[in-house]
Specification:
Length: about 170
């Protein structure tokens, strides 16, 4: 479990290395929460875009001057959406991701986010590769950079003090 597949930064024209897969939009595994520059170009907004209607509709959830913060919010929202929040928002896509997450097992995932910044590819890597709570806790300990405490609590459906207890028990 320590050898989780890696995240890779790809560009539009870069080739996929062997055993890797693109999870950028508009792939099936893309994050529906997107970080976009605001109209005046001075801030970053976390938005979803609905292009299915006659009029494309953009919904904004968060606005900040800090791009990395916006990326963090977009990943947090992605995690919460996968966990069933935002019901009615791209439910088909959520179902697809959850039903096909196994197909990402052992595969390196490519997104356009800079390495070391929050990206939903890390969520997908975890979901595709952990099989038990022990696996997850091991990943949390060894890959702490990639897993926020909030997200660990969401996945394990526990409070942060319960998480600490689990980690203590696991280390013992
Ligand atoms: Zn990304």
């Amino acid at each position: 479990m320590c050898d989780l597949p890696k995240g890779i930064k790809g560009t539009r024209f870069s080739k996929n290395p062997p055993n890797s897969r693109r999870v950028t939009r508009p792939s099936h595994f893309g994050n529906i929460f997107k970080v976009a520059k605001t109209e005046n170009g001075k801030m970053w907004a976390v938005v979803t875009e609905d292009k299915t209607g006659v009029e494309p509709r953009t919904t904004e959830y968060h606005r900040t001057t800090n791009k990395t913060e916006a990326q963090g919010v977009a990943v947090n929202y992605f995690n919460r959406w996968l966990n069933g929040e935002f019901s009615g928002l791209n439910d088909d896509k959520r179902d697809y991701i959850l039903q096909n997450i196994e197909s990402l097992k052992g595969v390196d995932l490519i997104c356009s986010c800079a390495m070391g910044t929050p990206c939903h590819r890390n969520t997908l890597i975890l979901l595709a590769n952990w099989e038990s709570e022990a696996d997850f806790l091991e990943a949390y300990i060894t890959e702490a950079q990639r897993i926020s405490e909030d997200y660990a609590c969401e996945i394990l459906n526990c409070t942060s003090s319960e998480l600490l207890t689990k980690l203590d028990d696991f280390d013992a």
